[in-house]
Amino acid sequence: MGTKWNIGMTSLLLLLAFVAQVSADTYFDVTQYGAMADGKTDISKALLAPIDTRSFKPDAGWVAFQYIDQFTLSGSGVFDGQGTTLWGKKCAQSSYCSDLPINLRFSFVTNSMVRDVTTKDSKQFHVNVLGCKNLVFNHFTVSAPAESLNTDGIHIGRSSSINITNTHIKTGDDCISIGDGSEQISINDVTCGPGHGISIGSLGKYPNEAPVVGIRVKGATLTNTMNGIRVKTWPASPQGVASDLHFEDVIMNNVGNPILIDQEYCPYNQCKLQTPSRVKISDVSFKNIRGTSSSQLAVKLVCSNGVPCKNVQLTDINLKFNGATPTTLCKNVKPVLGGVQEPKTCAA
């Protein structure tokens, strides 16, 4: 049986001494950084992550919540990761980014809620959700500039029944990224931008990845993002599954690649593109997607020639491009079309 918690931002002071993971036996006590547990002092200015990261262990979190049931974190405070001096190195060439601390980690947290909280300028991901079930983020805010590399807003992996609602994300990478083993994820009324969009994946990079099933994005608004709503898998991948994926009522404001399935995802050209992805994508719908694209290619559905996409539906698509005609691209997929189609998706 898990522990029950209800934590406001003021009483959180009493707990941060044990949840800020640095090494096996080292912790930061925020009372040593000017915070006071008097029930009166505004702690929002005290919640500053250490700038020196040398004592953080790889894959650590600055603040981590683990193995808790019926937990609430609420309040108007800000978790400031103070990452501005550390961004800028490319992550593919070294372990630099993976060694940086994540602002907030939720691991094996169940039946819980996070609301009215802000994470700012994380050194790496802002939030990592792992092994959680029935966890709600409501009126949550992520704040970082476009140049903050590898700072996904909320990353979810191997979790189920996660609900993100009424949330505002500005960052330098995916606003929300969904990794393997994620099931029944609901994303409602989210704003995203700047950032790289809302992504399922990347999938297929590692063996034995668990299926991704039941992802629903509804009522999102994306502004000035590099990508829109996308599903991405690596070529030459092990077998995998991504199914029951639905995107509805999404507004695009000057968004690159507004609708994207990319089974040839290959950042930094470090892939074997001649070998197809073996992640099977099926039962995907894009409905009532409208707005403006910053790229002329507005709809890109590039599926695997090893396991072509099945049952991909596009209904009521209305995307414009700088007064010119936007284009579409389809490979290894026969989409089912309905309603308005602007642009004409993969028309013969």
Structure notes:
Residues 13-28 have low confidence and may be disordered. The chain has a 24-stranded parallel β-sheet that branches. It is globular and about 55 Å long. It contains 1 helix and 26 strands. The chain is mainly β.
Tally of extended strands? 26
Succession of helices and strands = EHEEEEEEEEEEEEEEEEEEEEEEEEE
The number of helical segments is 1
Helix content: under 10%
Beta-strand residue fraction: over 45%
Q: Uncertain spans, ≥5 residues at pLDDT below 50?
A: 13-28
Largest pleated sheet: 24 strands, parallel
Rounded to the nearest angstrom, the distance between the terminal CA atoms is 58 Å
Provide the descriptors you would attach to this structure in a database record.
single chain; 348 residues; mainly beta; 24-stranded parallel sheet; two-stranded antiparallel sheet; 26 strands; 1% helix; globular
List the helices and strands and how they pair.
Elements: E1 7-8, H1 16-19, E2 21-23, E3 26-27, E4 61-69, E5 72-74, E6 78-80, E7 102-115, E8 118-120, E9 127-130, E10 133-138, E11 141-143, E12 154-157, E13 160-170, E14 176-178, E15 183-192, E16 198-203, E17 212-218, E18 221-223, E19 229-233, E20 240-255, E21 259-262, E22 279-293, E23 297-302, E24 310-320, E25 327-331, E26 336-342
Parallel strand pairs: 1-5, 4-7, 5-7, 6-8, 7-9, 7-10, 8-11, 9-12, 10-13, 11-13, 12-14, 13-15, 14-16, 15-17, 15-18, 16-19, 17-20, 18-20, 19-21, 20-22, 21-23, 22-24, 23-25, 24-26
Antiparallel strand pairs: 2-3
